Amino acid sequence: MNHYFKQTLDIADSVANLHYVSHPLGKGEELDALIERIGSARVVMLGEASHGNHEYYKWRNYITQRLILEKGFNFIAVEGDWPDCYRFNRYIKHYEESGNSAFDVLHSFNRWPTWMWANWEITALGEWLYDYNGSVSSENQIGFYGLDVYSLWESMEAIITYLKEKDPAMVAMAEEAYQCFEPYRTEEGHGYARATSLVPELCRTEVVNLLQGIRLHFPNYDTDHESAFSTEQNALITVHAENYYNAMIKGGPHSWNIRDLHMEETLERLLQFHGEQSKAIIWAHNTHIGDARATDMTSEGMVNIGELARMKFGEHQVALLGFGAYQGQVMAGSRWGAPMRSVAVPPAQSGSWEQLLKIEGSGNKWLWMDDLRNTQFLEVPVGHRAIGVVYNPEYEQYGNYVPSILPLRYDAFIYLDQVTALHPLHIKPDGRQMPETYPFGV
């Protein structure tokens, strides 16, 4: 994406508009009106401007709990790996032999960037969900699932484990697919991507046959319907992951689109699994949940789950809530796979969405974006900061701002003046040094 932006707004007029529509955010009850408005949607998507800020997780925890308690939401689906998140799902639902604590289950997450889900903030949410699920019937328990496509090998291992117990006749087919990919495992898919430049459908037949075989046998699997559903989902991941790595080597928007189309298909499958009246809460980066059609992503041929969900379910059934901040600290790596570190996030650049919200002057706040539809924000793209798992602030001006028509990108937005770094479980030798403010109330 081209993240350059130009300062073309009338600053004074923009700040005046923001002041008029801003609602203060200090205590949780100041979100009552927001909860009431988004709670009527079938799908609520909670964004974040980075994967490494405590406050984004804290407020999403709070909003998630209220949507469950007050608005009848049924499950959470996050920008994470299915196999890891499914283990966490089994823990919070009190399955047998599913772990002794949220900490133990999350501490086993070992795919970089581990801090995204193996952190104290999700630990707090997990224990809340565990307690909640212990107080309701099994059919009313809240689920927790992964939307992403990266877990190729872990998904195949989970399939083989399941089939060895439930459908031994299918094991050979699963192992054939696994063995096809095995030579490329050490490079997390990059080696396979390079190999497909020479043999484009290197392992495609194996994973497609595996998915078809599992779907054919699906009606015969046992009464643990969620476990059978998980196995089918893992098979779907292997097909989409193969497509993803095949597309990655070619460049362009295709690999991104495969990933977000998979997220949307997973959301639809989860809603179908949970029933016609089910309601979903999504946690993912702003770049995934904020409607791509309101950014420069669309000119580059990119789609995202926010756009796709609005198109599938209708705008009134999907609530997109973005997050952003002016400055602070963030947990990130200097390059892909690098050790995590806390990095200073400089003040937002001049003319950006975050700087305008800072100039407005009322501190932390939330906005209902419809209130800006009669302003210049509906006409002029504004730079909106986006920080990924790789972040080097010295290069921020070149790649960390997405030109956005904000009233069309989100339904609501939460702005924070100052943010702090997330609390990873793996940052200490044993990961057990609990933060002083845990479990992080608002």
From TrEMBL:
Under the heading PANTHER family, the entry gives: ESTERASE, PUTATIVE (AFU_ORTHOLOGUE AFUA_1G05850)-RELATED
A GO BP annotation:
response to antibiotic
Q: What is this protein called?
A: Erythromycin esterase family protein
Q: Superkingdom of the source? A: Bacteria
The record's listing under InterPro entries reads: Emycin_Estase (IPR007815), Hydrolase/PRTase-associated (IPR052036), UCP036794_erythomycin (IPR014622)
